[in-house]
């Protein structure tokens, strides 16, 4: 901060005569000046004792005297030039000479006073109290004006040219230099300007009349009238043309006068009207604020703040960025914003490492607002919807939660000091000074939690505000930049936490409490920022995957150009390529493959992009994936599950796409059953031919139960499949399969008979299983059914031609087994069957 300047804290009701600088001067009230003098934030030694207080009563009287002297100059100088016998101060002994000397002394003294008078600048809104800077600014502009109005240039010229009083003609010409003294009248315009803007007692009509009507001596009025009418060739008409040439000259001269007069009158009218309109608008606003105060009984302090902000807004709205740059092309507007605010934005830690395009977008989206001193921009607990970046001035951050009795006690008063820019506090101090380029309330803005600290202005501050909607739009357009901003925020939180932990704490109980409280708060902020950063990252991944799922190729390309991770996955490890393949978006798949998407990734269920393409029935996507080296790199059991399900459902197209995608047809499930086993068991000849012919599926592979596809076909009685598979194997394999089939069907029939499963028995017999097939002891199914007493099974076997007289290796028959176990009905049935066969024989 500059030690030679302090800020204007208000604008008041009386003009205090501070002189002009490079920019317009603002009058200020006594209370405002007292607030400046009492502000020791920037100055430790107080103001210079040689400074003149504009609020003092003697200076108010002096300024009134200078304004009266300016009025007197405006009246005397034209009068003396027009009606004195000899121009100048000659003969130096009359009343006019005394007036000249008197005015000369007043304005000379005023020049000396201006070297010690504080300077108020409108552009920076600073009250400059450094004497060197005051004199430098005064000499650069207004000193020259005052010097021109002070020196009697007519007397100097007469002395240089040695003109005596008798030389009336030359002296009259040199006397015109008296007009330079009229520059003193700028004080009159300053007086009228102040009353137009601040004096609400006198009406604007009276001010306008007083400004435009000035009493002048009667002879002076008549002389001015005579000169103007003669010049315009109206009125007295002293110029009379005689010849044609003179008539033409007078015509041209009159036309020139008419056009010049019209231009001058129009220009003056425009300037006066525009000035009056602006003054009227300002007065109406101030009167409205005054009426509002009276209606709602606004306190005096609050009313002063309201009027100060209204005046600040009124004076700055014409020069605001939005109004000035709105009509300019985007390139010029961007260059202007860079010139004005780029250093401050680049200094902000949030945008460290960000690209220039992101910073330009922030500059274009932000709006600049002005805040008066001692104004709380944001309070603790507020929900912040704007990102605040300080561009000019100073702001103090306060943490009200630490202002307990412990914090304000005398033992810890030394800790309640301004802190450095790093943000770390000494034993948990609660104040921090922000300089141009710093941001505040950024944690609340990004995480959407209540604000943790209050921000109060120390002087007139210029702050850039970026709304949440604008920043969200920018972060979507610049993904890498938005992620970098969050990373910088997280790093700053971690840095402040580490710095706070390393600071040696006070040994007192109060110091220990404040230190621990600060560490806990910073740790909590860090956790919140980390959670928010992770949430934002997941949201952007979701947007990218959603674009891939719905086929929004343009959105995908924009996000990829902005640096989004192309292989980002969701909670199921599904990538954008998998989703595009599953939905059949060919253009999106090609865009992802061209951008380098990994086509070999697998999700949590074991699926891959090529499998999703096979499911979506899109041959072109499968071809594109295979061209980029994609494979069905899935677990064998998972792949076998898809193949077996396709065969079971009869989905021949999906089976063909899987074969075209290079699926391993030898893949087996948990029972070691391949797709060919299922096809043979289902009797699906087309699937068997496709698996064997196109997929080169192995025919001799055995499952967990030792069965081959040929065995499965024989078991279900699919003779066409059996014939096809037998044509693909050797004769030895055929015989082995047949023998296995016979053993298997015998075992199945005997088990069904023993269990009394008449339906199973009937099914086997219908598939040409011999009813008298026996085990290794030559025990038939009828014997086993007779032992268990299964009458229906015995009847079914007899119906299919079973022999009731068959004997096992021990000479036992079915009838003897029934007699042995007391199954009378079975005995009678078998006896009748034997008698019937003997009669037939």
Automatic annotation (TrEMBL):
Which Gene Ontology molecular function entries are recorded, alphabetically?
voltage-gated potassium channel activity
Signal peptide extent = none
Q: Which CDD domains match?
A: CAP_ED
The Cyclic nucleotide-binding domain sits at 350-474
Its membrane topology: Multi-pass membrane protein
Q: Where does it sit, as one GO cellular component term? A: monoatomic ion channel complex
- Give the transmembrane ranges: 61-81, 101-120, 141-161, 216-236, 248-273
Question: Could you tell me the keywords of this UniProt record?
Answer: ANK repeat, Ion channel, Ion transport, Membrane, Potassium, Potassium channel, Potassium transport, Transmembrane, Transmembrane helix, Transport, Voltage-gated channel
Any idea where this protein resides? Membrane
**Membrane: present as a keyword of the record?**
yes
ANK repeat ranges per the UniProt record: 572-604, 605-637, 671-695, 777-809
- Where's it mainly located? membrane
- Cited PANTHER family: POTASSIUM CHANNEL AKT1
Q: Which family does it belong to?
A: Belongs to the potassium channel family. Plant (TC 1.A.1.4) subfamily.
* Name of the protein this chain belongs to: Cyclic nucleotide-binding domain-containing protein
Source organism of the structure: Chlamydomonas eustigma
